[in-house]
Amino acid sequence: MEPIILASGSLRRQEFFKLLGIPFSIIPAGIDEIYPGQTNPLKITGELAKRKVEKAIQVMSKNLPKWICGADTVIALDGKIFGKAATREEAAVMLHELSGKQHKVVTSIALFNGREGKIDCRGASCTVTFATLTDEEIEWYLDTNEWQGVAGAYRIQEKAACFITKITGSPSNVAGLPIREFYAMLRDNGYPYGAKTVKKEQLTEKKNPVA
C-alpha cells in the first residue's frame, strides 16, 4: 500500500492507522486551531481538517506525496464548542459542564488525493452521555493528565470510559477518527485498501458462464 502522510500529532489517530495496517508518516500540522465567530461544529472541524492538510501540502510542496490526511474533533454542548483545554482549570470547567449531560462529538477528515489534486472532506457525528460526576471524580481524572491535548478534556479510550453511560454512533469517532467514514473515503478515492471492487459486468459473467 502507498504511505499516507498524517498531518496530525494525535497519538490515538496514529494508533488507528497502525490498527488498520495502513503505512504512514507524520507531519504535525502546527496550525492555530481557532474558529472566531463560528459555532457550527461540522464547519469548524471541516475547516480545521482542511487547513492541516493544506499546511502539509505547503511544507512538502517540493516533494508532494500522493496522499495526505488531516482530521479534527470538537465537542458541542448546548450551542457551545469545546476544543482542547489549555490548562487544568479550563479542563475542570469542561468536565463540570459535561457532567450528567449528553453532548455531541463531531470529527471531520480531510484527504488529499494527489492523483487528482483535490481534497475530499467528510464529517461524522455521534452523541455521548456522561454520568453525573462528583468533584472528587473530576479531580482524580485531572490528576491522570489524560485531559491534555484532546477535545472536551477527556479520552474515551482510557480512564474517561469510567464516566460514559451511553454512546450513540461510532466510538472511534469519539476517539478522533471515525473508521467507517475513513474507510469509505479511502475506497471512494481509489486508495488500495480493503476488498477489491468487483465490476457489475464481472458479476454477470460469473452468474452466466459461457458454455
Give your account of this protein's structure.
This protein is an alpha/beta fold. 34% of the residues lie in helices and 24% in strands. The chain has 7 helices and 7 strands, in the order βαβαββαββαβααα. The chain has helices spanning 11-20, 41-59, 88-98, 135-144, 171-174, 179-188, 200-207, and strands at residues 4-6, 24-26, 67-77, 80-82, 102-113, 118-130, 164-168. Strands 1, 2, 3, 4, 5, 6 and 7 form a 7-stranded mixed β-sheet that branches. β3 and β4 (80-82) form a beta hairpin. It is globular, with a radius of gyration of 20 Å. Mean pLDDT is 89; it is low at 202-211.
Q: Topology of this structure?
A:
Layout: E1 4-6, H1 11-20, E2 24-26, H2 41-59, E3 67-77, E4 80-82, H3 88-98, E5 102-113, E6 118-130, H4 135-144, E7 164-168, H5 171-174, H6 179-188, H7 200-207
Parallel strand pairs: 1-2, 1-3
Antiparallel strand pairs: 3-4, 3-5, 5-6, 6-7
Helix pairs in contact: 3-4
